[in-house]
Design a protein that fits this description.
Structural class: alpha/beta
Number of helices: 9
Order of helices and strands: EHEHEHEHEHEHEHEHH
Number of strands: 8
Shape: globular
Largest sheet: 8 strands, parallel, barrel
């Protein structure tokens, strides 16, 4: 599967690793979310993950195959070597992760799209000067418990400013709930990337449908 990036892929963007579902098999969680209709999946196995590199690779292969069977892009967080080994559709890089220019160079020619985390006007301005970044992940919009090293909350007003400034689509991250989807969509963001909203969901089909509906344009 080779995915051409387009903003619609960001509408209902699920992010998770083994650390986010400690009492469940991530394969079964992903299967549920694919059935519910997520539009992208990011494999972010880090933090409190107990997996060895070999286990992370093996799990990644299974998750990639699940995504491709559902025609959903499989994205790897912050690990070019893993992304290349898994033939990922995309890679997402944070400001404190591997240097973005190096990542763009390493995945050049691999049919892999690139996402970059940007939470300030200065970071977006720098991203606007780059060739090879397809979308930005901006936030946290609201307080989040999913990342120990989360940046300061930017709020909906802060997101609106970044969306206006950016040259590429923005997916909003951090503390998103179903109740806040309309406010986030009103900023012009292309979608939302969520961990907790779906890993702790009691109605994933309805929650994913709400995400897709909020960003249907």
């Amino acid at each position: 599967m080779s995915v051409t990036f387009e903003p619609g892929l960001l509408r209902a963007y699920f992010v998770a690793g083994s650390q986010d579902v400690p009492n469940q098999d991530l394969r079964s969680v992903l299967a549920t979310m694919l059935t519910a209709g997520i539009t992208a999946f990011q494999y972010r196995d880090k933090g409190n993950s107990q997996l060895t590199p070999d286990q992370r690779l093996a799990l990644g292969k299974d998750l990639r195959d699940q995504c491709h069977a559902a025609s959903v892009p499989f994205i790897v967080d912050d690990d070019v070597e893993l992304a290349l080994a898994l033939h990922a559709d995309g890679i997402h890089v944070g400001q404190s992760d591997q240097k973005i220019q190096q990542v763009i160079q390493e995945v050049s020619g691999q049919n892999m799209f690139v996402g970059l985390s940007c939470s300030t006007a200065a970071e977006v301005a720098a991203a606007n000067q780059l060739t090879g970044v397809d979308y930005l992940g901006s936030g946290p919009i609201f307080p989040t418990t999913s990342k120990d090293d989360a940046d300061p909350v930017i709020g909906v007003a802060g997101l609106q400013q970044l969306v206006t400034q950016a040259n590429v689509p923005i997916v909003a991250i951090g503390g998103i709930t179903v109740a806040s989807l309309a406010a986030v969509a009103a900023t012009g963001a292309a979608g939302v990337a969520v961990i907790t909203l779906l890993t702790r969901s009691t109605a994933p089909a309805s929650d994913v449908a709400a995400m897709r509906q909020a960003f249907h344009n």
